[in-house]
Amino acid sequence: MLDRIQAFLHTLTSHDDKEFAPDDPRVAFVALCFQVMEADGAVSKKEQQKFRELIRERYDLSEDRLKALIEAGHEAGHEAVDYYRFTSDLRRHLVNEDDRVELLGILWDIVYADGQRSEIEDHVIWRIADLLGVSSRDRVLQRQQAAARLAEENAEESKD
């Protein structure tokens, strides 16, 4: 799973600027992650941990820059009235359909981090998928694969 996430995140541009531009795809990605995590009204510690782990491991940023990216994405997510701003930024940078499908897989992994999925989270990802031009079939396949990954992780943890 981490290889999938790494491959996806490497498709996004990386900058060493002090500030993150509003149309930086990393900000859009973080904002969508927050939208998904906060959709059901409860952000679990496991969701937060999965999210921070993903961002920390995949972006080559100092701790200060990582915090700045998370703050920029969080602020952008709270200022947004819809998902279009973020999905349009990502569509410009993720010209390959496989990369957009991969994005959904990562969002599903965040949803399943706490072992639960809500109807509201389903709806948020459906809207994001629609705006990214990802088919319903691919969206459902990514959801099923994320659920299977969680089951595998839980099985491995119970062996230990």
Automatic annotation (TrEMBL):
Q: Which InterPro entries match?
A: DjlA_N, TerB-like
Would you say which domain of life the source belongs to?
Answer: Bacteria
Boundaries of each Co-chaperone DjlA N-terminal domain copy? 27-143
According to UniProt, the name of this protein is Co-chaperone DjlA N-terminal domain-containing protein
- Please report the organism this UniProt entry assigns to the protein: Aliirhizobium smilacinae
